Amino acid sequence: MKKKDREKYKVMFSNPNWDFETLQAADEVTDWVGKEYFHLDTYPNQIEIVTSEQMLDAYALIGLPTTYPHWKFGKDFVLNQGNYRKGRMGLSYEMVINSNPCISYNMENNTTCMMVLVIAHACQGHNAFFKNNYLFKEWTSAESILDYMVFARDFVLKCEDEFGWEEVEAVLDACHALMEFGVDKYKKPSKLSPAKEEARLRRLAKAKTENYNELLRTLPEGLKKRKRILEKKGKFPVEPEENILYFVEKNAPKLPVWKRELIRIVRKVAQYYYPQGMTKVMNEGFATFMHYHIINKLFEKGLLDDGFMLEFIKSHSGVIYQPAYNSPYFSGLNPYTLGFNIFMDIKRICQEPTEEDKKWFPNLIGKDWLVEVHYAMENFRDDSFIAQYLSPKVIRDMRLFTILDDEDEEHYEITSIHNERGYRKIRESLSKQYDRSYRVPNIQVEAVDTHKTSKLTLIHKIQNDRLLDEDEAEETIRHLRYLWEFPVELHSRNRAGIDEDFYEC
Question: pTM here?
Answer without folding.
Answer: 0.86
